[in-house]
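pasting Bifunctional diguanylate cyclase/phosphodiesterase for the record, 630 residues
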Amino acid sequence: MVVEKRHYVYWTKFRKDTSPLLRRFLLIASALFIVAAILHILPFFTNQGEIDYLFFFVDLGISAVLYLEYLLKNKVPLIIRVFSLISTAVFISVLSFVRSGLLGTGEISLAFIIVSFFVFLPPILSLVSSLLISILPAIVGVTVYFSWIQFPEVLGIRNNSPREWYFKSISLIIFSILSGFLIQRLRAKLIKNIVYLKESRSKILNTKKHIDKLAFYDSLTHLPNRYLFEKLIKSRIELAKPETFLLLINIKGLKVINALHGISFGDQILALIGSVLKQFTEERPDTLVASLGGDEFILWIENSTKTKIENAIVRFDLNNNQILTPERLGHRLQYRVSGVQFPEDANHLDEVIRKLSIAMNVAREETLTKLVWFQSGMESKIEREQKLKIYLEKAINEQNFKIAYQEKVDISNKKTIGLEALARWNAPEFGNVPPDEFIPIITKSELIVPFGKCIFEKVISHIPKLLESYGKQIQVSINISPIFFLYPNFNEYITHCLSENLIDPKNIIFEITEDVFIDEIETIQRIVSELRSKGISVSLDDFGKGYSSLHYMQKIQFDELKIDKSFLDDIANSDRNFLLLESICHLADSLGLKTIAEGIENEAQLIRLKQTSCHVVQGYLYSRPEILFD
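structre below
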């Protein structure tokens, strides 16, 4: 069944390809019949022989019919064009046999018809048709045998012999079989080669499409990639319409999703986001979207306004899909967006993407999802950050940081019971850079571990002098970054440094904040337990600033609780804030924790604080951070 279908497809494609050939064939045949018509009236000009008006008009009429079929092109079905050729050849052959017997061109015409059969008709039909046509001379022989047709003696004795006519039919039958076999074999190979070439061409085109897809489209989201995006908007850039904008969308937390659910699930999310953006742009011809790879997408938007785009960003929600529900992901899927206006902010694509990236850096610092438009001041800020990053790398390698110490005071006797070590940095070209500026740069630049080691080792080297100045029982607090705290072999590193410098672990207290990953709670619990088992105290810093402090207190045994400055600012004026502070102190007491009040700056705050169970303070009221060494 499959073979028959394949042969049918071969024949259908071959017939389609031979249709133009048949038209040319009709044109040539029409021209030959005109030549034959001219030859039949040639005696009129040479005065030799007789003019054959019958064949003249017949040849002329056949030529006109064939030429008309040529002009009508595909309006005349293929079978009619073939049939007209066959009918013409049969008519000419019969007329030739009747007029001229075996001396005419009838036999040649029949041979032509037989070849045409095998060229333009299917195999079985062509063989049957050629055999039927081949018996035409035998039919003439029968008419001669019964004396229905008698040829004059001038045409020869052979014309009146039925046997001669029978031999012509036999020779035509042999010719049909031999020529048919040869033509069919050649045609079969030709058809096969044609089909093979067409299939190869189809495969090449499909391969080219696949290569183009790989070259111009993102394989995951099926959106145009940056290369195709540049090509698509090239003409639009030259004819840029007013109110044209480009947006950069960055998906937040994709690394966490990959870690929790696997890379394939993260890819599924990106593919879904791509389909959402694709659907959005297909409905809007003035909008183009592309994938820049990873978790970033870029949009070109024409004929809009900043207000409309900002409103659309606020309404755009990635969590309205079953796959992306917060319940399934463990948190809401969020994104950051930066934007530039074209050509006001930038007038070519490389500059656009550079400024989009600059605005994206600012967007990453935002806590809420909103669109951050590029502003000229951002560029200078990025340049400053890049320079600071270079200087920071050098400062860490050369340990060019200084340590300022701020006292912790027991308000009951006004004695200093501890010190907090705070990093200070004087940068070339920029002077003193505050920690709230250089610490985030260190974190983003993945320098936090070498920075943490640098500060820790520097503080360790100061401890002997601090003990001489403040007494042997003094404790030095060191802020530990969450990234450094979760660094592999952190405890081994700390133990080795203390042992090498002969420092008693009881003089050290590590302050950690709750912004360590809550997913790492078991690891944090283990690290804290190991530190405390070696005599090192651990403090929960900035208590109440975040949302999971109580969760940490439930799971982890701390030694100290540092109440965030935000709880203390208004305790002198707000009874509500004072009650909150009092409740925190009672909670810490019930858990056996020592409480430290940060940011005490005036006497009114101190008076209120004395009414609670918290008696250790740290703030400008008693001391400011001071660089004691170097």
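The longest strand covers residues 415-427.
Residues 1-5 have pLDDT under 50 and may be disordered.
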